[in-house]
Amino acid sequence: MGTRSVFDFPAATGSLDISKLLDQYGCGSIRFAGTDNALYERHLAFDKALDLPVATSRDQFEAFAHSVRDVLSQRWVLTEKTYERQNSKRLYYLSMEFLIGRSLANNTTNLLLDPVVKEAIQRTNIDWIDLLEQEPDAGLGNGGLGRLAACFMESAATMQLPAMGHGLRYDYGIFKQSIRDGWQEERPDNWLRLQDPWEVARPSEQVEIGLNCSFELHGGSLRAIAGRPSSLIGIPFDRPVVGYGGKNINTLRLWAATSPNYFNFEAFSQGDFVSALAETLSAESLTRVLYPDDTTSVGQALRFVQEYFLVACSLADVIRRFRRLNQDWSAFAEKAAIQLNDTHPAMAVPELMRILLDEAHLGWVEAWDITTKTLGYTNHTLLPEALEKWPLAWFEIMLPRHLEIIYEINRRLLDEVRSRFPGDQERIGRISLVEEGAERKIRMANLAIVGSHSTNGVAAIHSELLRTTTVKDLAQLYPERFNNKTNGVTPRRWLLLSNPPLSRAITEAIGDSWITDLDQLSRLRPLAGDKNFQDAVRAAKRQAKWQFADWLRWASGQTIDPDTIFDCQIKRIHEYKRQLLNVLRIVSLYNRLRENPELEMQPRTFFFGGKAAPAYQFAKLIIKFVNNLAGTIDGDPAVRGRLKVVFLPDYCVSLAERLIPATDVSQQISTAGYEASGTSNMKFMMNGALTVGTRDGATIEMAEEAGGDNFFLFGLTAEQVAANRGWYKPQWHYENEPEAQAALDLIFSNHFSRNEPGIFAPLRETLLTRGDFYMHLADLTSYLEADQRLTALYADPDAWSRKAILNIASSGKFSADRTIGEYATDIWRVSPCPVP
User: Fold this and answer.
1) Cα 784 from chain centroid?
2) Which residue is catalytic, options 427, 571, 733, 818?
3) Residue 117 — pLDDT band, cuts 50, 70, 90?
4) How far is CA 760 from each of CA 432, 645, 753, rounded to the nearest angstrom?
């Protein structure tokens, strides 16, 4: 691959005195390579006992990463000392997911060390791209939720906010996805199989967590034994979060579970070797896997304990930090802001109350006041199944004290409801923290809202629907608590690092201040019609497309044409995200070419990327259909070279960093009213892709910023989806819209499954027999019309470039820096704490 040995560094940020930079990080004149004191070579010698000529690519990666960590370590220590000395109010961000991705290139860029690294690789003749490929993606998340958390942590550090992330150190991240015969197969993602050079274990700061039950092996499975208390040990592992410029280096603390020193010697002596280690096995299994399969009660129970473990360890850590410098509990909310990223950490409400009541010995009123002032809750979904509800019986077995506290919270809550809305029994039933039914459950979203002072959605439409529909009764009870914080992404990773050619073009046009103030991109608006800048943007896009094509050929052997339109949908595979609608569009275009081979049509390459939850069979069937569609089109000489479908296996952060800069068209086509925000849409926008999308999530606000005529919007609005729900008949569209009928008939004729007849019958059931809940057919004709407008525009390169530049220029609002600034001002009341 021609580009593999060349590292395309991001735009430099003004003149840089490397010796002064290294002095700043406490490294004096030490270099990465080329002298007897080189950091890189010293790590090879002292960590690996290796000489450079015999070092493998993995050895080189670890040496380079440790060298970068050496550079940042003193600044990392100084950051923590500064926060302690100033006793600043801190943000603690609790999230079950942190989709970190790779760290070496990102940390190098944010530390402004690119020139140093470039010199080092030239001196040592290292294949930098191959070295970067040695780092596994830290896939501690399923998708947008975890990637958002990672972006937020980077922005907080860049903005010099005293912030700390708390998550779980899963041994196995999100599964590795491979494709066999078109089907998704899952393999373990053992990202910690080799040493992670970024993490620092802190065993001296371990936390002991109590449960009211213990576990024993029964028939090969671990079973909870009620009434026999046990303990878990949380070991913290810290990772640096480097703000741009390296001024503040914050911490992401991930908790690993283990047991107290326990060994049943009697069982071992009797030959029951596994039972001798049962307690240890159960404890260490807790953080073994990201998000265990929750289609079974065993999987759900494991997630339940995972969530409590995260909350209990993190709050113990927060309390410990607070008590080191403060004795007055009434000051707690003035020194700590805790943000709950979705409902997963909602047990922070009863856990903080337990600490304040049972350990600090405060009265209920004071403890409740501190709890609600400290906690904030971010909601990320309108889907009822994603608003967690846990069986009340599990609290009884594992956390009975927490259940007592929840009951008392609920008693006081319902008294307030009765006072405010006398006689409204239905409202009481909807608001109650306890959902009555065959199995009584605790509503975790209700608990998070009631126990915090702020509940925010993550896009304007999402926050409005949350307030007026999903939790309407609670919003009427506490209207002052509800607000919106539209999501954002970090421009350092998603533009500066991912797209060096475009970053250089922007910097040459307006300077480099946009890197930390993305609103500066608005200065590009007057250049939208400038021929020289249009040429620069087109050249950057072309370079990104060729580089992606080269990488894909090297990585998978697949060949694509960079001169085609790159049309991309990369998301978790889910019916509401409507990959199936995209498929119907492609089948319709395929049908047009089959019927009229002379039809003028822009050559297209359609990319799909995303993973289906292992138990989500219909989502897996969609992946199967995409792959069968790809094979059928490749095998049809009538359309070969004009249409191509590519499913990209094992979609991850690193793949996105390569694909997004190369993309011409971004597909954001969820059923209106179902996507909370989206963040891939923002990444595509700032990299110059044009959006085909529904009026959903943050896409609405993106179109408002850029102007609707610079987007390709289509389909029903959220209001129309809700209004049509009662009478929508997909059969009508099948019978009255010829292209919809032709596409479906071709699918149902086994044209795409000749060797597997009937395999796609569930598509018929979902789209026609069962009512097409996500309204694919309702939007198909409008979608095809938007697609036609898009291809007509692409035929005019200057007009296309103008709209692409206007999109880039309008993306400033969607920086995570703006989002974090709003959180810090409106919710957390946390101020910057610069490190000297």
Assistant:
1) 30
2) 571
3) confident
4) 43, 18, 8
Residue 773: pLDDT above 50?
Answer: yes
Q: Is 683 a catalytic residue?
A: yes
Residues in Cβ contact with 524 at an 8 Å cutoff, skipping those fewer than 6 apart: 506, 509, 510, 533, 805, 808, 809
Q: How confident is the model at residue 292 (pLDDT cuts 50, 70, 90)?
A: low
3-class DSSP state of 709: helix
Kindly list the distances between the CA atom of residue 501 and the CA atoms of 112, 498, 562, 568, 741, in Å, as whole numbers in the listed order: 17, 9, 16, 20, 44
* SS3 call for 774: coil
Q: 497-515, pLDDT tens digit by residue?
A: 999 999 999 999 999 999 9
- Closest residue by Cα to residue 671 from 775, 785, 580: 775
Instruction: Tell me the C-alpha distance between 563 and 111, whole Å.
Output: 36
- Neighbour tally for 756: CB within 10 Å: 13
Q: Which residues contact 702 (CB under 8 A, 6 or more apart)?
A: 681, 682, 685, 691, 711, 810, 811, 814
Q: Which two tokens stand for residue 268?
A: 């071992």
**The pLDDT of residue 294:** 64
What are 689's strand-pairing partners? none
Residue 11: both structure tokens together? 């735009």
* Residue 545 designated active-site: no
Catalytic, 380? Answer yes
What tens digit of pLDDT does each residue of 143-163 get?
A: 889 999 999 999 999 999 999
- DSSP letters, 381-401, are ---GGGS-EEEHHHHHHH-HH
Share of the chain above pLDDT 70, in %: 91
Strand order in the sheet with 712-713: 643-648, 604-609, 565-570, 665-668, 690-693, 712-713
Distance CA 699, CA 807 (A): 12
- β-strands 221-242, 249-258 pairing: antiparallel
The answer to whether 11 and 512 are in contact (CB under 8 A) is yes
Q: How far is CA 374 from CA 197, 252, 319, 340, in A?
A: 34, 20, 12, 11
Which residues does 360 contact at the CB level (< 8 Å), separation at least 6?
Answer: 329, 367
Q: Is 571 a catalytic residue?
A: yes
CB 16 within 8 A of CB 115: yes
Please pick, among 89, 577, 624, 818, the residue that the annotation labels catalytic: 577
Catalytic annotation present for 572: yes
Catalytic-labelled residue, pool 176, 380, 453, 467:
380
pLDDT at 127: 86
Catalytic residue among 166, 247, 572, 644: 572
The SS3 of residue 268 is helix
Q: Is 577 a catalytic residue?
A: yes
3-state secondary structure of 740: helix
DSSP state of 451: T
Dihedral of CA atoms 518, 521, 522, 524 in degrees, nearest 10, equals 180
Backbone φ and ψ for 742, nearest 5 degrees, come out as: -65, -40
Single-letter amino acid code for the residue at 298: V
- H or E element that contains 148: helix 144-158
